[in-house]
Design brief:
Elements (H helix, E strand, L loop, with lengths): L6 H16 L5 H10 L8 E5 L2 E6 L9 H19 L1
Antiparallel strand pairs: 1-2
Helix pairs in contact: 1-3, 2-3
Length: 87
């Protein structure tokens, strides 16, 4: 397989995405760690107020992350696992 400078980063990104999708949650402690590690909402979103008036709104930037969907689905799998073992 030949890699050029333009395809190498994309193939590495694809490998990371596939790896994140392949992670299976089988341990409650690992599931809790994943839920603590991956936030439920974007931590970069901010609203800056000055005298109760909105001055600056910084939108959530997580959607620009190329592995955002894989991280959110991993967190969902961990939450689902924790819900299943509690029943």
């Amino acid at each position: 397989m030949n890699f050029t400078l333009t395809t190498l980063p994309l193939s590495l990104l694809h490998i990371v995405q596939k790896w994140l999708n392949s992670i299976e949650v089988c341990d409650p402690k690992v599931a809790q760690f994943i839920c603590k590690l991956i936030p439920a909402h974007c931590p970069f979103e901010r609203k800056i107020y000055f005298f109760n008036r909105l001055i600056i709104y910084i939108p959530p930037l997580c959607h620009f992350n190329p592995v955002y969907q894989q991280l959110i689905s991993l967190r969902l799998r961990a939450l689902s696992y924790l819900f299943e073992i509690e029943e």
